[in-house]
Amino acid sequence: MSAAAESTHLSSLGKGDSLHQQVLASFPLCDITEDDLTQNPQLCKLLATLSQHVDRTGLTAPLKTELDKAEQKLQNQRRHWLRSESLNKGLQEMIQDHCIRKHHATIPPDQNMFYETMEKCLLVSQCIRQLDPSSTTHQDQPSILGLSTQQVMELMPLEKNVHRMKQGLPVELEKHLKKKCLSLLSYYQPEWENESEGLKTIKLSHLSAQMDKEKKRAQSVKETCRESTVLLQRQTQLYLSELIKCIQLLQSLILDHRLRIQTDLDRKKLDYFEGKFELVLQKIKTEMVEIQLDTYTVDSLSAHRKIREKLGSELKACQVEKQSVEVKLASFKILGKEFEALAEEYSRLWQEIEMKTWALKEFTQYSNK
């Protein structure tokens, strides 16, 4: 039953891309993309089911109702506070304007009495508010400077002056507020400053609605900008993901192309180096032949040939002499050690004879000179 109900519910939401778009539209604050929903279908189903119980901000219907009630209550209390605060500020401004006018012009005594009475009443009310700021103040709390509310109330002006001030206050307050509204109108629309008083009053009556309209338009533009920002962020993420995929595909294509042409490139390089090696080898052989031709001419070759023949004949004679000497040495070795000592003595005497012969020859040459 539950599976059938869930399938029926999901079919009512949409299928494929439409379901993904509805889920993304239901949760604009979630940092998820359509690829995430495609790769996680169970998460998509969960969010689609959850979207029927929560709003775009993620609040459930009961919680949203309680929040709206609390917000309305807060707005009412804020409106009440703003009303009293704006009234208090208006009265303070009226007193300040009166003080400024006293320094520039002569004020009638009744107006002086009016504003003095109003200033004293405001000061007394402020002091009372400081002594008892709320209804939840504890009774045992020490008072400020030892004062009580009754003591402060004794500073109130005379009853008749207060009564007269209260009767004239609405008119004066209306004039002051009208002056401020006209100043606001001139600031909001400077081209209306030179209009007549009646026309300004008529336009002033429509100023609140016009400002409320522009406020709603500004909020609508703000909401549109926020939705555009979310959409832009989502499109940026999608663009970056697609760009990464394109880069990966390009890298794979470059790698495959490089591997495919690397063999041909290596073979061509090998053929080039083989041809270059053969060329260098032939050049070396040519240089060697040129060097031989420059070194060995026809005359030098015949002379070398004669020298070679003479050296060959001398080598043969030396080899024959060597063989005869070896035969003699072999016969001498048969005689033993006594003949070896005699041979050494003979060799020594022969060397002395050669030295003396050389010395005699040299002496004879120098004597003849």
Mean pLDDT: 78
Main β-sheet description: none
Weakly predicted, low-confidence segments: 1-16
Please, how many helices?
12
Q: Give the tally of structural domains.
A: 4
**Outline:** elongated
| Number of DSSP strand runs | 0
Q: What is the strand content?
A: under 5%
Helical proportion, percent range:
over 70%
Question: How large, in whole angstroms, is the Cα Rg?
Answer: 63 Å
Cα distance spanning the termini: 149 Å
Secondary-structure element pattern, one letter each: HHHHHHHHHHHH
Global structural class? mainly alpha
What's this, in brief?
This protein is mainly α and about 375 residues long. About 85% of the residues lie in helices and about 0% in strands. The protein starts with a helix and ends with a helix.
Describe the structure.
This protein is mostly helical and 369 residues long. The chain has 4 domains: 62-135 and 145-205, no CATH class; 224-295; 300-335; 336-369. The chain is 83% helix and 0% strand. The protein has helices spanning 2-13, 17-26, 34-39, 41-50, 61-102, 109-131, 149-153, 159-188, 197-205, 207-295, 298-335, 337-368. The radius of gyration is 63 Å and the shape is elongated. The N and C termini lie far apart (149 Å).
